[in-house]
Amino acid sequence: MLVRFLMLALVVSVAAAFAMPEIPQQRALSSALLATALLATAIFASSSAIASLVRRSGLVLILILAVPAIYMAVQLAPVPVHGLGNPIWETASAALNAPLAERLTVDVRATVQAFLHYSTAVALALITTVVALDRQRAWQLLSMLVAISTIVSAYLLLRQTIGADGFSRGDTPVLAATGAVPAVLGLVLSAAMMTRAFEDRRRVKQRPFRVATTPWFALLATLLCLSAILASGDGMGTATAALLGVGIVLAAFAIRNWFSGVWGIASVLATAAVLFLAAFTLMPIRPNADLTVALSEHAPGATERMLQDAGHAGSGAGTYAALLPIHRDIAAPLSRERPTAAAAIAIEMGRPFLYGVLIVAVVGAGALLRCSLRRRHDYVYAAIGAGAATSLVVLALVEDGILEFGASLLAAALFGLAVAQSQRDTGAVTEQSRSARPVVGLDSPGPACAPIRSYGIGNASMRVGLGTIAVALIAQTVWLLAQPSYPGGLPVEALVPNDASRQALLRVLPQNSLRSDGDLRSGRPAPAPQPAANGAAASRPEFGVHPAAPTVLAQALRSSPLRGDLWLMLAALSREQRSVEYDVAALLKLSYYTAPNDLALLPLRLTAALGEASVVSDPELRELVQRDAKIAFARQPALRPALIAAYQSASAEGKALVDNLISEWDSAALQSMRKEVPIPGPKTDPPLPSRTWGRGAAR
Q1: Cα separation of 407 and 672, whole Å?
Q2: CB neighbour list of residue 358: distance below 8 Å, 6 or more residues apart
C-alpha cells in the first residue's frame, strides 16, 4: 500500500509540474504531496528498505545534497557583520524608514522559493530511490518516466511546428516547458529502454506482451524526443548533449555484451571520447564571451553585464529575475533574455559554487558508469544516470531548461532511479543470515553487536532525516502561501491622473510589464494584468486603489527590495495621499535604480516626479527625470502623449524643467506642448477597471 502511494505521489508531482500553470497552488500541491509521501516513508517503510537507502546514499552523497541547502540558508540568514550583506538592504531600510537586516540574497521571497524548489527535487529523488529498490518497480518507473518525457517532447515539437501562440491557453502555455531538457532526458531513457528490450528479447524464448511491445514503445519515444531536439532553437548544443548521453548508454551496452575486459572497456570509452570531441568542435562558440554563455545561440547582453557585477558569494538563489530589470536594455522585453543555467547559477550562487556543481556532476557520472559496468544485470539504470549527468552538464552551458520546475523534478526522479539500481541489494541475504544466528545472552560479548548497533543507528538517522526534509517542505510551503499578497501584474495605470497618460501607458504595459512573482524564466512572456470584478476602493473610488495598498507594498518591498514597479507604486500612492511616512524622492530613486529601462513605468514615473517640487530640486533625481523625458520625446514617439499629460499636471518647477530640456531640442514642439488643450476632468473620463491584488507564484 505504501509503495503504491509513493508511486502515485511521484507521477502526480512530475506530471503536475509540467501540466499546471506556474501558480502558488501548483508548487504547494507538489511540495505537500511529496512531503506527505516522505513522512510516510520515514514512519512506515520497512527496516530493509531504509537499510538499502542508507547503503545507497552514503555519507558523501548526503553531504553533496546538503551543501546547496546549507548555502541557501546562509544566503537567507541575516549577516551579523555590517557591510558584508548586499547594499540594497541598507538603501531599502532608509527609504522605508524600517530596520532591515542585511543578507547575501537580494530577494528573500525568491530565495525561499528556490529553497522550496530544491527541497522538492531532493524529496522526489529520495522517494524514487525507495520505490525503485525493487527490480520490477524500477522497470515500471522507467516506463512512466519515458511516457512523461515523450508527452512533453511531443508538446514541444507541436509548439515548434505550429507556433507557440497556436498551442496555448490564453496567455499561459498548456505545458510549462520551454527548454530541451525533457527531450534530451527522454532520449536517454528511451535508448536505455531499447537496449533493455533487446536483451530481453534475446534472453527469453517465449515473448510475453510486455517484451513484444516495449521495443515499439521505445522506438516511438526515441523518434518524438529526437524530433523535438532537432526542432529546438538551440540546435547543435542540445544535439551534442543528447548524443553524449545516449553514447554513454550505448557504450555500457557494448561493453557488457561485446567488449568485456580492461582493453575492451578502454577502446569503447576512447571511441566515445573521440566522437564527443568531434561533435563538440561543431558547436558554435561565441568569441570574447564569458564561458557560461559562450555556447548559447542567443545574445544575452543583460546576462553578460550581470556576470561582470556578480560576486563570489552570489546574489541569492532564484534572484536572476529580480536583477534582470536593472541590467536589460531600454524597451527590451524580459522574455527575450535567455541565459544559460550555468550563467544563472554563477550569478545567483557564485562561480565557486558553479564550478563545484560541474565537478560533482562529472565525477558522479563517472561513478555511476563504474557501477553500471560492475553489474551483471540491470546495469542500464546506472548507465541512464551517467548519461543524464553528462548531458545536463552540456545543457547547462547551452540553455536554462534544467532550472524549470518540471525539468528538475524529472531529472531528480531519473537520478533516484539510477542510484536505487546502482548496486545489487544484499539486504535480504544479510537479514536472513542474521536471523539464522543462535541467540546469545545480553552479557555475552561478540562481534555481532557492533554491526547490529550501527545498523540500527543508521536506520534511525535516515528516518529522522527523511522526516526533517518533510517538515522543512511543509514549513516553506506554508511560509510562501502565508506571505501578504501584493499587486498582480502592474496596475500602475490606475494611478495616472488623466486619460491621455493612462492610454499611453496601457499601450506599453501588456508587452513589458513585470510579473508579480519575480519568476521570469526565459521564453515565458509576462501575462497582462487582468481586470477585477470588484468596484473601486473607498479611498479612491475613481482609481480603484485598495486602502491598504501602501502597507501591502511596503511589506512586499521588505522581502523583495529590487521590485522597481512596487517602489514606483508606493511613491505614487504616497504622493496622492500626501503621506508623511515615506519620502517620495527616495522611493522614486529606488524605482529608477531597480528598473531604469522599463518603459512601462515611464509615464507614471514622469507624472510622479514632475509633480513634486522636492524631486525636481534633487540634482541626481533631476538628471534621471531628464533622461526619461528625453526617451519619451526623442526615442519613443508613442510615449509623447504621456509626457504631455505629465507636463499638464506638473508643478511649476516640473514644467520649468521640461521647458528647459525640450527648448534645447525643438522649440516648436515646446510651443505646441504649451498650446495643448487641457485634459477634461475625471467626471468625463471613461470608467477605469480595478485591478486584482494577487499572490506571487513560487519558483
Answers
A1: 56
A2: 342, 393, 396
* Residue 215 one-letter amino acid: P
The cell numbers describing 473, all together, are: 517542505
Helices (H) and strands (E) in the chain, counts: 28, 2
Q: What are phi and psi of 108, to 5 degrees?
A: -65, -45
H/E stretch holding 37 reads: helix 24-44
The span from the CA of 17 to the CA of 36, in Å, is 17
Joined grid coordinates for residue 578: 500626501
Q: Identify which of 94, 111, 75, 107 has the alpha carbon closest to the alpha carbon of residue 564.
A: 107
**Cβ pair 493, 502 in contact under 8 A:** yes
Cα 289 versus chain centre, distance = 24
DSSP 168: E
Residue 675's pLDDT is what? 54
CA neighbor of 530 nearest in space, from 485, 489, 484, 486: 489
Close Cβ partners of 469 (under 8 Å, ≥ 6 residues apart) = 35, 38, 119, 122, 123, 126
Q: What's the pLDDT tens digit per position in 480-518?
A: 777 655 544 444 444 444 454 444 443 433 333 333 333
Give the Cβ contact number of residue 640 at 10 Å: 15
Q: How far apart are CA 404 and CA 25, in angstroms?
A: 16
Predicted confidence at residue 501, as pLDDT, reads 42
Q: How many CB atoms lie within 10 A of CB 134?
A: 17
* CA separation for the pair 440, 302 (Å, rounded): 71
> What are the backbone dihedrals phi and psi of residue 578, each rounded to the nearest 5 degrees, phi first?
50, 45
Q: Is the pTM here over 0.90, yes or no?
A: no
CA distance 604 to 645: 10
- CB under 8 Å to 535, separation ≥6 — which residues? 541, 544, 690
- Distance of alpha carbon 593 from alpha carbon 131, whole angstroms: 50
The count of other CB atoms within 10 Å of the CB of residue 136 is 8
- Tens-place pLDDT, residues 586-619: 898 899 899 888 888 888 888 888 887 777 778 8
Nearest partner of 348 among 114, 520, 566, 562, judged by Cα = 114
Question: In 10 A of CB 243, how many CB atoms?
Answer: 21
At 568, list the grid cell: 514606483
Tell me which residue of 532, 524, 531, 517 sits closest to 480, measured CA to CA.
517
Q: Is the dihedral of CA 115, 120, 126, 128 positive or negative?
A: negative
From residue 656, give the alpha-carbon distance in Å to each of 174, 267, 622, 652, 659: 52, 80, 12, 6, 5
